[in-house]
UniProtKB/TrEMBL annotation, chains A, B:
This is ROK family transcriptional regulator. Transmembrane segments: none annotated. Gene3D superfamilies: 3.30.420.40, Winged helix-like DNA-binding domain superfamily/Winged helix DNA-binding domain. CDD domains: ASKHA_ATPase_ROK_BsXylR-like (cd24076). PANTHER family: BIFUNCTIONAL UDP-N-ACETYLGLUCOSAMINE 2-EPIMERASE_N-ACETYLMANNOSAMINE KINASE, ROK (REPRESSOR, ORF, KINASE) FAMILY. Belongs to the ROK (NagC/XylR) family. It comes from the Bacteria. It comes from Aeromicrobium alkaliterrae. InterPro entries: ATPase_NBD, ROK, WH-like_DNA-bd_sf, WH_DNA-bd_sf.
Length: 397, 397
């Protein structure tokens, strides 16, 4: 655990306490339950300070005592347990996909309590999507417990997002350019909590890092497959954003200068080889299944021959990503997870033939532990940030 | 400036003071000279604390008072100036290239006081290189001031390096596999200071970030061209290492599945298109000029027609790197700097045609500010780390 602050000159004691309260809550939020002894050792604060922080969080209703937990070594007195009260606070997680919107009500601890989903028409108007979200939000809030406080809204979009001002700079598969989508949603919802918006792959990486295939891993790449292909990257335990937050556009690695024209304007981008359109074409499926390619692939018992070349292209592109970033884990999300289920050995063979031995020796290529919820959970994690930064302050608003 | 620590419980005051002393020295080392007022505002410590730290560094002979410096606004009393005493401490910076070794004696503030260079035979034995280094070190130390203390050795190698144990895992253009080169050099030199070793591109990125084209930039890619091609990456102001420290192998982005066989075992790697061998072939130069391709390119008044296709390949690969990492600055080092001087417009055109507009809009593609010294300066910066972490401790050893 990092980020523990110590009381200093006295002028900033309140800030230090707020910070530490958030750090304890973050830990319980991540782990679901823990013991005071474990918190004491993780945070390097003394027992009474931890006890005081835990008591404050109990008073706020965010955690409760649980059965005492035996220490890891099995020796000594069992330590007082703490567990998250998921119904005390919740966020709205909004996953805008190319063909559908999913809205989840997600309780503290990232418990997805309820989901609602509506399909979208091709290239939907942002206003239409925002209106759709309003309806879904009403649906998922309908049976929320009256004691449960809404503390944030997190929005995922399959495109290039400028997080600072909530602008969707470019979402080619939605047909959006420079859409101030966070503001649009905030305006329609009329909610006063923080609204955050981010790229779907970045949120997928975050979710799998915190609660999925990348727990305890500091270097992870999440590759999203939702018609287009993008990546969210964690290096040294932190998201890789780049100068403008636009890093991870691996769908537009260009492999074939004389290849197919990509909607980005270039030729031969990876997306023209492994995007959903290319795969639908390869398996002879009609173009209108493109947005639901994951379901189509999941219906196959075994891989059709035509997917072998696709698998080769997937592995080839992943090898480039691995050579550049040297991750421990690569998680294939969306329809790429379905593809991985069918042609894992072929993908791995292509990865192996392309990676430098040093970087590629230990890399694990896998599917999301959180399954279809990965991006939704990532959006929820982002939405919980303000509560985790200042638990008492956010609840008193 | 980051990393300022505050005195806490009393038990760790000595550690805090050591840390702050190093932070002040690091600042003066980077800037060459500064004022106490500037240090006070940068470090958010009070005047008397800064004064005490500066006095200690003066006593150690590492800094001296200089002419008072007017405040930036021009108002108020001029503040006491501080400047680095470069001759008080020095490091040995060793730049092992594919065809030569350069050893520099580099004073505090990264003043390259003297360089010595010897050419290497093809695929030199590590022991031979280490012996060569011993001779060069003796040459550059011969006229070192007796008051100047050697505080570290920094070694750059064009290959994949495991920094933790000083192992050169793979340096294809030297023909090295699993060579414990840092230990080999340490043994031959018989010096008791810290020896650090790193990849040449990583050190180039570090040097240009601290003192070159990437000062005040948080996202930078340095592309090394020394027969092969690699990258050193800075993201969020910190080096991107990856799980094993092997990130940045962009020479082995594979573009053409049916392309030329690369020495890494793959086909169609970027290095087969833009490596020194490919360029020598394109301009009809004999193979034995490959290691000195920079000098050959520097002799051209204008670009031969044959370099236009190479420029296109360079820009195409850079676009992929930019799409993935979203840097503010890309620095082309080694023979790629010479190439850039000849065909900059063609490289830029290819970059522009391949980048996503969001990520590529603002990127600057340029040559190293530090010129041929970039990697040497990076090795020196790495070697100064132990002094900057504990100035008094290292000098008293």
């Amino acid at each position: 655990m990092t980020g523990v602050a110590r009381a200093g000159t006295g002028t900033n004691q309140e800030a230090v306490r707020r910070h530490n309260l958030g750090t304890v809550l973050r830990y319980v939020h991540r782990t679901g339950s823990t013991s005071r002894a474990s918190l004491t050792s993780q945070m390097a604060l003394n027992r009474s300070t931890i006890g005081g922080l835990a008591a404050t969080l109990e008073d706020l209703g965010l955690v409760r005592r649980s059965t005492p937990v035996a220490s890891r070594a099995g020796a000594g007195r069992p330590s007082a347990g703490l567990e998250v009260v998921s119904r005390r606070a919740y966020v709205l997680a909004i996953d805008v996909g190319v063909d559908r919107v999913v809205v989840g009500r997600v309780g503290l601890g990232c418990d997805v309590e309820v989901r609602a989903r509506v399909n979208l028409p091709p290239e939907p108007a942002p206003e239409h999507v925002a209106e759709t979200i309003v309806g879904l939000v009403a649906a998922v809030r309908a049976d929320a417990s009256p004691e449960s406080t809404l503390v944030g809204v997190g929005i995922s979009v399959p495109g290039v997002v400028r997080e600072a001002d909530g602008m969707v700079v470019f979402a080619p598969n939605l047909g959006w350019h420079e859409v101030p989508f966070a503001a649009l949603v905030r305006e329609r919802l009329g909610l006063t909590v923080d609204h955050v918006i981010a790229n779907d792959a970045d949120l997928g990486a975050r979710a799998e890092h915190v609660r999925g295939a990348g727990v305890a891993v500091d270097h992870l790449v999440y590759v999203s497959g939702d018609v287009g292909v993008g990546a969210g990257v964690i290096t040294d335990g932190r998201p890789l954003g780049g100068a403008g937050g636009f890093a991870g556009e691996i769908g537009h690695m260009s492999f074939a200068p004389n290849g197919l024209r990509c909607h980005c304007g270039s030729r031969g981008c990876w997306e023209t080889q492994v995007g959903a359109v290319a795969i639908a074409r390869a398996i002879g499926a009609p173009a209108d299944v493109v947005p639901t390619l994951d379901a189509v692939l999941d219906d196959f018992d075994g891989p059709p021959e035509s997917l072998h070349e696709i698998a080769h292209h997937v592995g080839h592109g992943l090898a480039n990503v691995i050579n550049m970033l040297n991750p421990q884990v690569v998680v294939l999300g969306g329809y790429l997870a379905s593809l991985h289920r069918l042609v894992e050995p072929e993908i791995l063979a292509a990865v192996r033939s392309g990676v430098m031995s040093a970087a590629g020796g230990q890399v694990l290529v896998t599917r999301p532990t959180l399954g279809a919820d990965t991006v939704l959970v990532g959006a929820a994690e982002a939405a919980f940030e303000s509560l985790l930064a200042d638990p008492a302050g956010v609840l008193s608003r």
